[in-house]
Give the backbone structure.
Amino acid sequence: GEDVEQSLFLSVREGDSSVINCTYTDSSSTYLYWYKQEPGAGLQLLTYIFSNMDMKQDQRLTVLLNKKDKHLSLRIADTQTGDSAIYFCAESYPSVFSGGYNKLIFGAGTRLAVHP
Amino acid sequence: NAGVTQTPKFRVLKTGQSMTLLCAQDMNHEYMYWYRQDPGMGLRLIHYSVGEGTTAKGEVPDGYNVSRLKKQNFLLGLESAAPSQTSVYFCASSFASEADTQYFGPGTRLTVL
């Protein structure tokens, strides 16, 4: 079955790098996403990676994908207090298997706390 | 361009009451979705729509109904609210392509007493 797992908490010092990890079970995923949720707000798309890529970099964000181990990570360089939020990993399940829509399977989210 | 908006932002219901949550998007997206978010869990899909006039069940559809009479709006109804429906509800929308990402509204926090 489809499952996405993340650790629940991560605490880092301001200025350090943060690495948030995610594992998934479905090898037929086409896209993998990272969403950010700030307190009281909806989910904001941070970045995504196509399943045939190994790495994607976008300013302070680096996404690494290990397809063999079904492991996805998000690295935030120079972490700031404004990065404190919950980060959700999600995999996109092919629509041909899910009745015609681009089904997303979400992890439970990793709460990132940035302290001085 | 407001993106995806949801009304209301907060609501408290008594068990057995009914209500409708409204989602609107101005991005001309074909697909729309309703999710619920519970503590320690990822988002779970309640219902979705692949176009105006169509709806389909997601993972957790029981106790909810939906309608998509206009392309830009997707309504989620609770006919007889139960405490188990206390949650934060998110609406999302996307284009039809597999590559297109889902854009989320700000959420509605619902408490059923």
User: Anything to note?
Assistant: The mean pLDDT of chain A is 89. The two ends of chain A are 41 Å apart (CA to CA).
